[in-house]
Amino acid sequence: MTPSARAGVTDATSDSETSTDVETGAAGPGPASERPPTTDAEGRGGLRLLAARLAPVVVLAVLAYLPYLPVDVPGVLPGRLNGPGSMQLLATCLVIGGIALSYDVLFGRAGLLSFGHALFVAAGSYLLTISTASWSLPLPAAVGLALGLSTLLALVVGAVALRVGGIAFAMVTLAFAQAASIIVMRDPGGTTGGEEGRTVNRAALPDLLVGVANAPYRYWLALAFLALTWVAVSLLVASRAGHAMAAVRENEQRAAVIGLGTYRVRLLALVAGSFLGALGGVVHALVLGGSSPHLTTSEFTLSLLVMVVLGGAGSRWGAVIGGVLYTYADARLVEVSGAGVLQSLPEVVRQVLSQPLFILGAFFVVVVYFAPSGLTGLGGRIIRKAGVSS
Amino acid sequence: MSDLVLILFTGLGLGALYFLAASGLSLVYGLMGVLNFAHGAFMTAGAYAAWLTMRDLPQGWPVAPRLAVAVLVAVLVGAAVGLVVEVVLIRPLYRRHIQQVLVTVGLSLAGVAAAQGIWGSDPRPVEKPVWMAGTTRLLGATVPNDRFVYLLVALVVFRGPLALLHLTRLGLVIRAGVENRTMVEALGIDVRRTFTVVFAIGGAAAGLAGVLYAQYAGAVSPGQGGSLLIYAFIVVVIGGMGSLTGTALAAVAVGLVQQLANYYAASGVGDLSVVLLLALVLLLRPTSLKGAPA
User: Which end of chain A is more exposed for a tag (fewer CB within 10 A), N or C?
Assistant: First the structure.
């Protein structure tokens, strides 16, 4: 290897994506993505570095511009791209993408297989709804209250659940989330609305977030949340705490031996992820105008895991793309069942295929088998292969 | 007093159901280290298999023999599903526990969705034999008879695997395989086949739990297995992962606590106190639960 190439490589690894640096070689839940081929000269490394840095900004700009595009995309979206239906769907996709990113802080970064993340998302959502609707708090106070209490809840639940590790931790978090689901369903004192859910008090919201015509503003709100979460996760991953999380994920014993408080590192990951998740819950409630008990179900918590693994655990692109694609597919795959192609199939097959969750679940199993690093990992591999052969 | 007796028996009956659901889970986890999220889907499969069998058998038969056949079919279906899942999906991922969990998660989502697509999401009522629907006067309380059935079946299931593990050659191989897989293989024994058998037994237990829970609930629905699975998880964690005796004790404790709290406090408090019980156990003696490699 020439000195110049070597310099280029070090530059790329130390400077650009400290996160990807930590990610690579992850043997646990994080994918073991291969390092890009390093035989090329410096210019190529610099280009790649530039692209990696610019990509999120470009994507953000394009997404922010979407509400100005009056394009028809038949079959892909309900109606025009900047119509209220499409905007609402895209906003939901972005919020869930952000929530998936917050879950990745636990699963992909700290290696915590939690089945209780829905608890904190639901806490954020329901606390916002209840504090505006039942306690008539103004919006800023309601947001503050929702975030504060949810984070406190995460601290308490995490302190208890982290006393066990591995699979037991997964089961315990599931149990806590289930308890919350039961409370919400029982509707104590009429606060949660039971199966119906609860709507946000419209009077407490700024006018821009209310009404069908203002769907683009809710879309921008969702986009802002996603961008904020992205930045927060980037900073966290690049910080000392982020490195400690990666160390604990990779080898807990070794991390403990070199003097890291593994319990505290995990608790920090859980609380940080839950805070972002609760923020996602708040935005979810604002975008959808209320809270639905679906957020508390174990199905939602499992789907978060599916999203992250589908996209690629331990990578920001992976979590976001997984979340967005999953939500989109869940909403739009119902259309597939009406497609003409399926009419010739036997009745039972059609009934099964009409369930989006069946397709997603089966697809998920296939991804776990054949693309353990998720769709982004697979994409990266294909791109790199193409780059080598050209 | 009579209320208390009734609640105790209901709690015990429910505990028996939790044990049935948890036993397969605990067995598979203890021996293979696989946390089977699809266990709920196995239970749903058993429940629907039994429901279909009871529907398609000649309606002239009394309910009891039809139920007996249905239980048999449910157990066989559960075992078959477990067998196929182990051979096709779990075996290639041996020792990669997280991936195994992920696969079973995907399977559970797809399984429930498939049941929903074919039979709809509404609960379908199931027939109950006359005797099981009746009651018995006991210590001044009228106890529904089905509680005794659950207890009896749970006792049999409790003794069965223990006897299998400790009295048969297969049990010997399984225990040895858990202890040191490489050594057992070096002795010329195919451990993989025994693990498949264990998974099939777990599936059979799930099928049994599914059909009995459908009897308890009076209906089958796609989400049933999943909701029972969560209590099964709690029972397995409280009982110490992988220990059948611990699982049995924990199941009884969870069933009793839930029923007592539901009756003496308020409806719904029981479910919460179960989670509280779990938190307490974790805080007081977490060491017994730590045998869980991720």
Answer: C
Smallest Cβ–Cβ distance between B109 and the set A160, A348, A357 belongs to A357
What phi and psi, each to the nearest 5 degrees, are found at residue A211?
100, 155
Instruction: Give the pLDDT score at A341.
Output: 61
Q: Please state the rounded mean pLDDT for residues B84-107.
A: 83
State the smallest CA–CA distance between residue B199 and chain A in angstroms. Answer: 18
Q: In terms of CA atoms, which chain A residue is nearest residue B91?
A: A369
CA pair distance A346, B278, nearest whole angstrom: 47
Q: Does A11 score more than 70 pLDDT? A: no
Cα Rg, chain B, nearest whole Å: 19
Contact at CB, A164 and B279, closer than 8 angstroms = no
Number of domains in chain B: 1
B232 touches chain A (CB under 8 A): no
**B219 part of contact set with chain A, CB < 8 Å:** no
| CATH number for the domain harbouring residue B38 | 1.10.3470
Sequence-distant (6+) residues with CB within 8 A of B145 are B131, B132, B133, B134, B135, B136
Does the beta-carbon distance from A171 to B236 stay under 8 Å?
yes
Q: Which domain, by its residues, includes B25? A: 2-289
The predicted pLDDT at position B1 comes to 64
H runs (alpha helix) in chain A: 3-11, 18-23, 42-65, 84-104, 117-133, 139-161, 166-186, 215-238, 240-250, 252-257, 262-288, 298-311, 316-337, 347-353, 356-370, 374-389
> ipTM of this predicted complex?
0.77
Is residue B184 helix, strand or coil? Answer: helix
Say which of A172, A176, A361 has its CB closest to residue B107.
A361
What digits encode the pLDDT tens for the residues A315-353? 888 889 999 988 888 887 777 656 656 666 777 777 777
Instruction: Give the pLDDT confidence score for residue A42 in this predicted structure.
Output: 55
Please count the residues of chain A.
Answer: 390
User: How far does the CA of residue B213 sit from the closest CA of chain A (Å)?
Assistant: 19
Per the domain annotation, does B226 fall within a domain?
yes
| Test mutation, B230, B269, B285, chain A, max A CBs within 10 A | B230
Alpha-carbon distance A272 to nearest alpha carbon in chain B (angstroms): 22
pLDDT digit string, tens, across residues A139-160: 889 899 999 999 999 999 998 8
For residue range B28-43, what is the model confidence (pLDDT) as tens digits? 887 777 788 888 889 9
Q: Examine residue B123 and state whether it is found in any structural domain, yes or no.
A: yes
- Among chain A residues, CA nearest to B99: A368
Is B294 contained in some domain? no
Instruction: Specify the residue for token string 């052969």.
Output: A389
Please tell me which residue of chain B has the smallest CA distance to A172.
Answer: B234
Distances (CA, A) of B140 to B10, B137, B143, B167, B240: 15, 6, 9, 42, 36
